[in-house]
């Protein structure tokens, strides 16, 4: 993509993007590298106790419960929301949107090009995470998880990030308010975490409304690419972005 809107967005966010990529990679490597120690601790537990706690001592189980089940999805959500907030509602409230709309570019092009910049940033972050985990895979005794399975989980991490970026873009373009972006993101984020973690208590059906379920429920670290889950996250992102763009094209922008 060669649009100035796209390249300018990436240029303006390059320092932050580097920090996000390095930070996520370091966090992922830090958690993953403790697997041998955690596995030894788990192996020392009585078998009955491990079974009662449903402890999964495999490399895939450990990565799913820690690296990809806790901190990295949270960071992915935060990055997506931050990118959407900065590119839409933040610019509108600061008056910068007025300058952008004065250029010979449609509102749809503005949204699409800036969203493409956010997706590119997410792609860079998740690629760096994948490469970082591959670098420590042997030393951290994670060989039972193949590079393709790690890639499948990182692709889902990318799509989770894109889903929340699309949500933030959609809310920002639809309402032009930071409050609207944060409120919608918090609501969906809570649903994502609670729906995926508590569905056994409140009903199996609730997990299907959680983006987290489509991110990790198919266990890509064991089963590789889950194309149905990938399709759901892509469609969800497209819906968020389309609804916001339609609203953005129809309303007055208060700059």
What does this protein structure show overall?
GO terms for molecular function: ABC-type transporter activity. It comes from Streptomyces violaceusniger. Keywords: Membrane, Transmembrane, Transmembrane helix. One of its GO terms (cellular component) is plasma membrane. Pfam families: ABC2_membrane_2 (PF12679). With 255 residues, this protein is mostly helical. The chain has one domain (4-250). The chain has helices spanning 4-12, 14-32, 35-43, 47-52, 59-65, 67-87, 89-94, 96-101, 107-136, 147-175, 178-197, 199-202, 211-216, 220-223, 227-250. Helix 6 runs antiparallel to helix 9 and helix 9 (107-136) packs antiparallel against helix 10 (147-175). The chain starts with a helix and ends in a 5-residue tail after the last helix.
Gist?
78% of the residues lie in helices and 0% in strands. The protein is mostly helical and 255 residues long. The chain has one domain.
Give, in order, the helices and strands.
HHHHHHHHHHHHHHH
- Note poorly predicted spans: none
On the 0-100 scale, what is the average pLDDT?
86
Number of helices: 15
**What is the terminal-to-terminal distance?**
28 Å
SSE layout:
Blueprint: H1 4-12, H2 14-32, H3 35-43, H4 47-52, H5 59-65, H6 67-87, H7 89-94, H8 96-101, H9 107-136, H10 147-175, H11 178-197, H12 199-202, H13 211-216, H14 220-223, H15 227-250
Helix pairs in contact: 1-9, 2-6, 2-9, 5-6, 6-9, 6-10, 6-11, 9-10, 10-11, 10-15
Please give a handful of descriptors for the protein shown.
single chain; about 260 residues; mainly alpha; 15 helices; about 80% helix
